Amino acid sequence: MSQERQWVLTPKNISSALAEDSILAASDTLRPAFHLVPPAGCMGDPNGGIYHQGWYHIFYGLQPFSSSPGGWYWAHARSRDLLIWEHTPPAHTPAFEFGLGAVGSGSTITAADGHVYAFYSAAGKDGKMKFWQARFNSDLSAWQHSAVNPVLTLDQPGIPPFDRFWRDPFVFTAGGKTFLIACADLFEADDVSVPIFEARNAQLTQWEYKGIMFTYPKYKARNLEVPELRKLDNKWILLASTDAPVDRCLYFIGNFDVNSLRFIAEKEGIIDYSGHYYAQETIRDDKGNLYLMAWIPGWDRDWLPAYMNSPLKNSSPLWNGCFALPRQLMIDPDGSLVQKPVDVLKQLRTVHRVIEGRDLPVTSAFTAYDVIEEIKGNQLEIKMEMDLHHASFCGINVLCNREGRKGLFICWSGSIINVDGVIVPLPEWKQGQTLRLHIFIDRQLVEVFINEGRYCVSRKVQPECIGGRYIALTRLGGTARLVSLEAWQLKAVRP
What we know:
Elements: H1 11-26, E1 41-52, E2 55-63, E3 73-79, E4 85-87, E5 106-110, E6 116-123, E7 129-136, E8 143-145, E9 167-174, E10 177-183, E11 191-199, E12 207-217, E13 225-232, E14 235-242, E15 248-257, E16 262-272, E17 278-284, E18 290-296, H2 305-308, E19 319-320, E20 322-323, E21 327-331, E22 337-341, E23 349-355, E24 358-360, E25 363-376, E26 379-387, E27 391-400, E28 408-412, E29 416-419, E30 422-425, E31 435-442, E32 445-450, E33 455-460, E34 470-477, E35 480-490
Parallel strand pairs: 1-19
Antiparallel strand pairs: 1-2, 2-3, 3-4, 5-6, 6-7, 7-8, 9-10, 10-11, 11-12, 13-14, 14-15, 15-16, 17-18, 18-20, 18-21, 21-22, 23-35, 24-35, 25-34, 26-31, 26-35, 27-28, 27-34, 28-29, 29-30, 31-32, 32-33
């Protein structure tokens, strides 16, 4: 890392830092091969997802000068198909003229005038969090800040004294009107709040507080960060992330009343049971499909062998974080959220293997491991179905050694599935029903879709826990049965 590096978020400084660090960052053999990752630096929340002029656009917080969080600007990637992404030159930088040193999380919207606007949170010169607006150019490669910024502050008349968590504006339209919701909190209240504001002019620079759209008990969630409200099928879905009591993305399905401006939840659930999945962001395409992306944070210093073996060992790592695979969102007939990996991922498939169904013999005193010699790799897609039958548990171990040890275990015992220590309840399971798993392995990252996407878990496997590139079937107790298993080697989307 250059000793002359300038830590000010200008396009020139950002480009210089990314060019300097990206070559070594790309040489890390455990860096994901088909997930969206930054060229270098520390990736943060996805922001402003939008489909525009035939492109899927996603912005994201990026600290380009190190792998430690903080000092974000909005990096920009775009894709024709949600699979192959290209990173654009840095242009969405802080409004230095307003005293901003970073760009926080926010959203985008196509306004009535045809322009795409960004709304984001950032602290002003006085250190207080405010909401800011910028207008994009036609291809979203650059933006210009509104001269009347900030467009929303807590000292405006009629706004309650939100004490903390005031951030993450999300702008949407309903009933011919434009609204803004945000993460907020009334410190003395028992519930965390999602306030709602209505735009008072076409330029979306004037906002009126209209009340609290949704509340949720604080004992369940300390906050509701990066909230999004989207129409899905014939319902509305509120998505949000919370960092306590555990890091999780939540969903609420119900109805939004455009007159009372209240959201009433009929069903709630967990988007991804892992603490490795956060800050969800959606993109709706021109066909009405709604796609979900999210941040997988926390790639620690010692998880970067290419960097740790380099002369720069004592400095910060050169990359941190990636995005989960895009998921298409749907509502199941029973009203639950279903998440499916996008179909375009099938284009990554190469070598195909099919394992015939078979009984897995009884083991009563120890866990048995049946390594499948025909399938080996750390870039794999696996689809399988298992029948617990009379076993205490059964499952699969991925990224294990030839003896079936180490790696990431997925263990199923009827109404509970354990994915690398993450417990997922399966309340609808009945004796005799099978379990279906759809698994993506990208080097040290594993994403698991359970029972056609009704439940999801994303996990990173630390290098010292990776046994190898084998997979093994596991069981304990009575006979279990492998109903079916097929796997594909997956190619990388980058060299």
